[in-house]
Amino acid sequence: MKKAKTLFGEQFIFLFMVAFFVFMAFASPQFRTHYNLFNLWLDVVITSILGIGMTFVIITAGIDLSVASSLVLSAMIGAILMSKGQSVFFSFLVMLAVGLGFGLFNGVMITRLKMVPFIVTLGTLSLGRGLAMLSTRAKSVYGFPEIVTRIGSGEIGYFPIAGLIVIFLYIVAWYILSRTVFGRSVYLVGSNPRAARLSGIDVERVRSFAYLLSGLCAAIAAFIQMGRLNAAKPNMLYGLELDVISAVVLGGASLFGGKGNVLGTLWGAMVIVLIRNAMVLFGVSVYYHQVVKGLVILAAVFIDILRSGVLKRR
User: Fold this and answer.
1) Distance (Å, rounded) from C-alpha 52 to C-alpha 276?
2) pLDDT-wise least confident of 8-12, 16-20, 253-257, 308-312
3) Residue 179: which of 108, 262, 252 has the closest Cα?
4) Distance between terminal CA atoms of the chain?
5) CATH number for 228
6) 31 in a domain, yes or no?
């Protein structure tokens, strides 16, 4: 079991990511262009921000399939408000409220009504997409104030502004998980909820807060995505939730709960985005993209099983 942890841990994913990056730099001249690297990093931004919230949820032995839907719904509500002349600040606050509301709904259904996380978030995945479609009758909203596009697609020197936001969020998330009582509670709830209760931890509250964080991260990512595209589209980012889950598990989190860290999630997100970018640059048919995505998800689950020692116990 220790060997599996060493072989497929966060260090392995980091080394794989670096090796893959170097390979792409030599294999494709287009990969090295500023345009591609800039867009590559912006892709990482969205996946990794959602990955922060997903890391908290998965460590508590939960799952959130609704993160992309929460992002899209938040973006559509914010876009509608801005198109009607509301300020960027007010629109952003409403977007945060939508994301938090989504997370709160998931948390209440799971912790208070004792429903299965997979089923609840599968339902809210469809609910969020449906509400996003209804909000504008499936029409996209274009054109936002300059500050929105500046945050979403602007850069300082050669570094995206959104990248600085990601770094800040990851520092905050790392501190919460590794240096606070709540962070220790998250791990204990995921690994042994009974022991957590005996220790005086409110297990339901910790799990609910994890889903709240997931919704909050979705709203922040929504604002950046709007600025990147200068548009909000109700059909954008289909299937992104699977990429996020794969990134978190590849980064060292266990679907069985109790294990994971945000730094590993960042490396996992980079690997996922690099694979996607490589398929585009090498001209791989879009039909094979789904095949590769499925294989990556299966690989992430298999690696998680190896880490957890389930096969060995059997």
Assistant:
1) 20
2) 308-312
3) 262
4) 13
5) 1.10.3470
6) yes
Instruction: Work out the number of other CB atoms within 10 angstroms of the CB of residue 27.
Output: 12
Neighbours of 89 (CB within 10 A): 9
Angle CA 272–142–105, to nearest 5: 60
CB 272 within 8 A of CB 251: no
83: its two tokens: 């198109």
Give the chain's domain count: 1
Give CA separation, 130 vs 4, 117, 138, 187, in Å: 41, 20, 9, 34
C-alpha–C-alpha distance, residues 309 and 2, integer Å: 9
Q: How many CA atoms lie within 13 A of 267 on its CB side?
A: 22
CA distance 150 to 59: 34
Statement: the pTM of the whole predicted model exceeds 0.70: yes
In this prediction, residues 44-68 reach a mean pLDDT of: 96
